[in-house]
Records
---
Amino acid sequence: MSRTRQAYQDLDRLWRRGREFLGCECAVLGGAMSWVSERHLVAAISNAGGFGVIACGSMPPDLLAAEIEGAKALTDKPFGVNLITMHPQLDDLIDVCGAAGVGHVVLAGGLPTSAAIKRAKDFGAKVICFAPAPVLAKKLLRAGADALVIEGAEAGGHIGPVSTSVLAQEILPEMGDKVPVFVAGGIGRGEAMLSYLEMGAAGVQLGTRFVCAHECIAHPKFKQAFIRASARDAVVSVQIDPQFPVIPVRAISNAGTERFMEVQRSVIEKFHRGEMDQKAAQLEIEHFWAGALRRAVIDGDVENGSLMAGQSVGMVTAEQSAREIIDDIIAQALDALDARRTHVAAMPGEIQGAL
Ligand SMILES: Cc1cc2nc3c(=O)[nH]c(=O)nc-3n(C[C@H](O)[C@H](O)[C@H](O)COP(=O)(O)O)c2cc1C
């Protein structure tokens, strides 16, 4: 289907602020995914016109510096770095980004302090923060955040309790004109991206959809699990007893998910029998998934590792290049814009006049 120039102009108008903020052709961030978003996927997304983001995860500063240099060798396009705020060497990691001239730092995994935001801004980076609620979005802007990501519970990995569609309604009308807001969680197609842009988003962030990019170094078994899974397979970790909190993580269910339930049950029983104190029991539950994402992504242990994925995994049906993934999403958005115009053109003249 050929697309009209008007559709391109409309899309350009809708995401221009996001594109200008990121310095790329398409306001599509490749959401940082620990172990997955390393130099190859990041560079491929940026080379395809999107905005790749390196996931620092638990990397020490020297490895992050090497990853940034590795990405620079593969692309001359802008890309960002995602840092987890509870990393014990956060300040050093920010300084690594500064020394490497990283243009955009994403602070994730908990509310960043204003000192961390300032440290990144002092070397000239734009700082992007996750806003899990309207009140926190305002707080982050007061603390100096330059842009926000709102990520709903449909997303893969660590999630909050509120859906993308509700967060978007709560935050975009009020904050969308103050700073660029990027919407994440459950976006697999261009029509969904378009609807958030029309609600006032500056762009979108996709994670799950990029896992099966050819350029992604994830183990073939990890990618196969994504291609096989449907939306309902990507479930949130279950907490058995509120006395022993479990961090909500969305992942494709596997044998590890079942075993996690058994471990929780047995540890909690031991606690009730007085064989374990609460702290030790909580630690054993928390340690269950330690290293599990790496085991799945890098080693291909898709039975026992963590298959973090969002509900959009149902829309991942084949391996594609990063460019094909981005092009598909853009084509779907353009077609939706054109289809709407065709619809209006087919209406009786008096209705068109009233529109
Ligand atoms: C395997 C995996 C690992 C992730 N790791 C991180 C991470 O290290 N830091 C982070 O901020 N977000 C992480 N995320 C979230 C993504 O950056 C992105 O916001 C999310 O995937 C968007 O939702 P979607 O999966 O529905 O596209 C991860 C997601 C997945 C699927």
---
Amino acid sequence: MEIIQRLVSADKYGIKCPYSMTPKGICVHNTANDASAENEIAYMTGNNDYTSYHYAIDDRQIIQAIPENRNGFHAGDGATGEGNRNYIGIEICYSKSGGERFIQAEKNTAVFIASKLKEYGWDISKVKKHQDFSGKYCPHRTLDMGWQRFLDMIRAELSKEDDELTREEVQAMIDASKERVYHYWDELPDWAQAPIKALYGKGYFYGAAPDDLDLSYGTMRTLVVLARALKAEGKIEY
Ligand SMILES: [Zn+2]
């Protein structure tokens, strides 16, 4: 899903995100209202309260308000708090009434968080809830429905990506095992032509047939090293 940026204006950095930040993880929230992500972000970036967060996600959109390299005030643990100073705050929308819009917003959030874990090289332990930092019962509906269930949704997304990676890796292994074999003189790379011709001419090796060298890349390289050694000893010329 595309990430839409509606970044807070720089003149509000002093209120909304005064500190630079190297994120340590994700802090998950529920908005506890029924506003869309767009309205939620417009409200947050438009007012002068210090309360802030990085993303709002609903059933249709992911909207970013604060760059990930600046802090937000969402975790309820104060100006120097672990959550407020180190965690990317994500609000899941439509949590007041729940229903299909919320279910989809949670799904979108799980996919987004999985992509962030991958991007930062984090494991699932980096996904925290607001409650972990201040004790507030947030993300309330996600907690009602089951925090472990939500983590499992993220895990499912991670393993989906892992499966794709594994298929790619398997294909890469197959490709790597198909070592190129050179059959004809004009197939040989320039750096191998003269030394291998010299070896062949002196009868150091024969191909599979008079017109088929049948040399793997590895063997070709070994023969070139051999040719150089023989040339240094004056046993062949090229
Ligand atoms: Zn919260």
